[in-house]
Design brief:
It is an enzyme of class 2 (transferase). Among the domains are: about 160 residues, no CATH class; about 170 residues, HUPs (Rossmann fold), CATH 3.40.50; about 210 residues, Orthogonal Bundle (Transferase(Phosphotransferase), domain 1), CATH 1.10.510; about 70 residues, 2-Layer Sandwich (Herpes Virus-1). It is about 50% helix and about 15% strand. It is built from 23 helices and 25 strands. The strands form 8 sheets. It has a 6-stranded mixed β-sheet, with helices on both faces. Strands 11-15-16-14-13-12 form a 6-stranded mixed β-sheet, sandwiched between helices.
Amino acid sequence: MAVGGSSVPVSSPPLLSSSSSQMGRSFTRTASARSTAAAGGGGGQGSELTPIEEELSAEKQTDLIAETAAAAVQEKMHVAVGKEVKETKANLAWVLRNTPRDKTIVVVHVHCPATMIPMMGAMFSVDKLREQEVTAHRHLERLKMSKVIREYLEICASSKFRAETLVIEADDIAKGLVDLVARHRITSLVMGAAADKHYSRKMAVPKSRTALTVQAKADPSCSITFLCKGNLICTREAGAQLQGSMMSASSSETNPSSVTNQADYNRSRSLPERQSEPLHMQGALQQRSRSANFVSTGGVAVAVSPPLPEGNFPVLQEGTSTSQSPRSSHQHSSESDITAFSSLPSSPRDESEDTWVENDVYEQLKNALIEAEDLKREAYEESCRRKKAERDLVGVAQRAKAAESLHIKEMRLKRDTEEELARKNAELEDLRKVHEQILVELKNANEQKMKLAIRVANCERVIKEFEAKASEAHSIQEKLRQDVGKFEKERNEAVREAEELRKEKEETVSSALARAAFSEFTYSELEEATNNFDTSLLIGEGGYGKVYRGFLRHTVVAIKMLNPQGIQGEVEFHQEVEILSRVRHPNLVTLIGACPEVRALVYEFLPNRSLEYRLTLKDPTQALTWQVRMRIAGEICSALIFLHSTKPQCIVHGDLKPDNILLDANYVSKLGDFGICCLLDQSSSTVTAFHQTYAPKGTIPYMDPEYVSSGELTPQYDVYSFGIVLLQLITGKGPFKIRNEVQDALQKGCIRELLDASAGEWPFDVEADELAYLGVRCCDPKRKKRPELAEVWRMLEPVTNAASSVGSSSTSSSEFSSNIDAQNYAPSYLICPITKKLMKDPHVAADGFTYEAEAMKGWLRSGRDTSPVTKLRLTNCELVRNHAVHSAIQEWLQKQQ
């Protein structure tokens, strides 16, 4: 038979030997197209052994590398950890307790990127966000993952274990773990069986979906230990699913068309993966990779097996068809040896005919063997090249991984360096700002120090000046003491002489009054004095009669002509004449004489008319100032006290009102109209009340309500009338309902709104309140609640003194000015310029003058900012206690005692 265009005679089959019966397995491989053209390639029987031995040697080296790689993998313990350290810490601790220290702990983590990203308080899908936002979030996730991995590594380092990390990103943790086991040929893995909260002592199998998936789908060569809450649950030993894998691999061989694909896939497996497989798995993979290949030579099927580790030779099989399955061939070769050509059936009669055929077949078989050897050599060379390429690829992958790790370290170092540089720059900037702030504060402190030094120098200078002034004041004080002694003697002598002169004057006046007695005028004199009662001289008119201005006996007088039909009868006329001719007081109108035939009274002329007229004037320029009003109040109070204190009978005026209060040229008030006054008997302790038996007389708004209801007249009647008059002086309003208005204003704290603005600016709000409250008390409807006139005078005295010192000069009564005269004995520098009284708590104001503290505070509270003495604006409102004047006051008081 010609193979490849030539025929080769076959003498005998040289390859049939006893060694062919020692083949334990047979492998088939499909011949390539180029193998048909390789016939007659030469080569003897001895040259066929060299490639087989080389292939056996290469396979031994491959097995040795695989065993070394498997041993290296077995030196590592892979532990699957989660993203929460507290959930996996107990399992990692179990591994550290139950693992030898010579093994390396590989921390395995599957990172699942989040599909929903929090943004502005809500969750957004990755598809709806910008790429920059997703990239930033992924970066934060990786940073957090790196921090968690570092914590696991620190735990391993604290237990003195060498630790590595193996991290992969996947959408599903179970798939990621299965992929890691297959890719890195992991042989030992520890992972969680379920969450810690699901742990129980009866747990014997994994419960979590991830654990069940890894248990079912992970490579069978990997031993998986399942833990929960630091307790061993179960272990899946390596090779647990090996039989199933083998069965699936064998079943795939039944399809001839899949043999080539399976072989190609096995050849494409990388060397590191084969090295990382266990030895029994490598044997299975080698068994699956060595599939049967057929070479067709003129209808004869030849099965060629690759070299075996034992060095067995291939077995030749004769057949007439290629339909024999590789599975049956494999089973046949694995069960028994294949018979040689000598066992083929033949007959003696056909031996001569078959000789040529045998030679031809022998030649064909020889050429086929040569071609098979060439193919095996090419396959071996290709396998070596592939293994070398795979080794190079592994090396490149390792170098790439090392370069990637180095790049990551460099990037991390760069990032850390940049962060450190930024932090240092920020600290430097903060230090620069602090330095600038300290410099500013130091500058301010130096300026403040200079100012304080200047103030200290000024204070020292002022202290020296005050010491000099104090020394001078002390010398003046000593001199004043000497003068005081001399003045006291002079004063005592002057007081004694003044007392003697007063007594002499009283005796002279009494004798003069006794001689003059009471003047009576005729009607003709009154007509002459009034120019026959000319209406141009009429100065007043009322229900009592008319008042004319006249010139009588070289004196300007006021002539009161009583109305014959008026309410004032003969009795009242004689009563007023008797009382006014008997009493004398600076604030009582002076009665010059009378004309009994026409019931006319002649008074001294008072040019400023009555208080009622002045209070009702519309012209603000002619209104009474608050000083004049307060002085009038004090004068009327003094006159009432005088009337009530007369003996043996006290006088109750009974008709006190502004119309009966007259004013002289100096606005000194004088009380008149005593027509309805009453004399009350009084003992040393009580006053006998007078009971009115007829209709009460007087002006209704000023009448005592209890007198109107009971007819009982007491001195409290005048107190009620005085209260109404006092409220009119303060407010300028009419008498009707004035008490209720003032009382409401006091309760609301708005009394200043009721003060009469035409009186000028009142000095102190507090004293205005006190005066208003005093007026309300005086006109209380209940007699027992009204104060005595003595108490009223004590409250009016300070205000009256102040008004007298500021207002126009006038002649006051001796009772009113007695207290002021007593103050005149004290040195002027001990008297307050505001109250004109001896100071109790002297304080120096900004103008350099010393005032009573309360008086000056009241002055400032009233809104004034000028000096009470100089009338210039005060630089400040501070008051400083004057200890020198206070000491002088105390010494003066001790001497007075």
